[in-house]
Amino acid sequence: MKVAVAGCCHGALDKMYETLELLQRRHNVRPDLLLCCGDFQAVRNEADLRCMAVPAKYRHMQTFYRYYSGEKKAPVLTVFIGGNHEASNHLQELPYGGWVAPNIYYLGYAGVVRFRGVRIGGISGIFKSHDYRKGHFECPPYNQQTIRSAYHVRNIEVFKLKQLKRPIDIFMSHDWPRSIYHYGNKKQLLKMKSFFRQEVESNTLGSPAASELLQHLKPTYWFSAHLHVKFAAFMQHQANSKEELPKATKFLALDKCLPHRDFLQIIDIEHDPSAGDSLEYDAEWIAVLKATNSLVNVTQSSWNVPENNGLHAKWDYSVTEEAIKEVLEELNHNLKIPCNFTLTAACYDPSKPQKHVEPVHTINPQTTEFCAQFGLTDINDRIQQAKEEGSVRGEYEEEEEEEEMDSTGSAEEHSEYNTDNSGLSSINPDEIMLDEEGGDEDLSTCSVDPSPDHPPDFSASFSDIRIMPDSMAVSSDDAMDSTNEELEKSGVSKQVEEKSLNERPLKRIGGNENGNSGIKKIKRRNQAIYAAEDEDKTE
């Protein structure tokens, strides 16, 4: 089957889907599935804009709300993970995943699903060592710290994914696995993004947590985004035993969603022709969620996952075939994910702007149903209980002291990873510079700049279709000089080239309700995304 893979969408759903339609009209290529590697920006209304970690002047409504309201429907099944520019309050409603609009599915903090027999996994957010060992304690209304920490990867999600034994076909992460650039055309990468050189040479570019997962899961394909540059790599894995067959991963990072940028790729994936067209639960993943349910943590305290170090009675939470069989029996062998999308917030109305609407902590009925069906803990419900018990403070009073510390770990204990890396220390001219303390942001302001009702015709911009190799195979390091020429000569896959807030009580929604050295530290923001015409450099 044909799978379309997109980089950072940044809320430009109309543009993304129009590109797919153009591909079909001109080349008779119609993807069966669309995957998006984060920064999807499922923004429903002005309150959601306030929960997105970007300066106020770059908060734009874009077009997701039209799909949320039902005005439009995604023309192809879309599965995405979260990045570091998201409506965190919206995605937080679905920690285990769920529908954010009809035909658009979010994988959750971490998740695995199946489509036509193809096993697809992913992990949302970016790596930051100072939050890695905390629980998911954040909830709206966010402050200057939690609006960022909400999208930071946690060790519990990595731990869950490492319990998987069965092969993964496709895996998605927002930031790149650390060291992956050593397995592709590193020379070409540094030619395009010279400011990556320091991090590449010191091997600190990318997520160490994602690298850990790459080495453990060894998926056939790994897709990422975040750094706003296209890059391919081929990683041959070492076998863990004589009995294990050699495995390799084809890695591809996609550019951001803008005209004339390589933000979309079509890949041919082997699938099960006898499988249905519905998105399905993955039985092993459900069994792992059940097995690790007792490990749910909603506190700010640093926490270590179980390991074989003499401190834990149990450290192996991988599941048996019997446990997987039990999940199948619970579902009567019907793994189809129910189409139970529900509106949980009022949708943006261009004629009735609500610039001062406050974000609220919401429990999504999809999560309630999912947890009830599989006997899991509703993380948002647990957060609310902890807040009511005084275990979780809404003001994040001790965070200032922690933010002043070196990012290699917390005051109590060093992180298992010696560097923090999702934000580069070099200067990226594509990025918006922000102080880590967030002084440039005003969470109380909401700048709504909706997309026009009649989007422009992108056919003139999205006109170049290239032939890409079937395997995306690339040699490592400097042996890569001839790769680009080879990419042009052979293959079957086609690429489309495109040049502080008041506390609010928890809101439970029913099924029928709508409801830098002189330079500031870099956050992964691209000003061209939020204001395509604005080429000014921020301070």
TrEMBL record:
Signal peptide feature range: none
Keywords on record: Hydrolase, Iron, Manganese, Metal-binding, mRNA processing, Nucleus, Zinc
Cofactor: Mn(2+); Fe(2+); Zn(2+)
InterPro entries assigned to the protein according to its UniProt record, in alphabetical order: Calcineurin-like_PHP, DBR1_C, Dbr1_N, Metallo-depent_PP-like
Domain of life: Eukaryota
Pfam families attached to this UniProt entry: DBR1 (PF05011), Metallophos (PF00149)
Chain segments carrying region Disordered: 387-462, 474-539
Compositionally skewed regions (Acidic residues) per UniProt: 396-406, 432-443
Domain Lariat debranching enzyme C-terminal: 235-380
GO molecular function, a single term: metal ion binding
Compartments where found: Nucleus
Compositionally biased tracts (Polar residues): 418-428
Record field: compositional bias (Basic and acidic residues): 486-506
Cited Gene3D superfamilies: 3.60.21.10
Claim: Transport is one of the keywords in the record: no
Keyword Transcription on entry: no
Main location: nucleus
Any one of the GO BP annotations: mRNA splicing, via spliceosome
GO cellular component: nucleus
Family statement: Belongs to the lariat debranching enzyme family.
Protein name, entry field: DBR1 enzyme
Source species: Sula dactylatra (Masked booby)
Gene: Dbr1
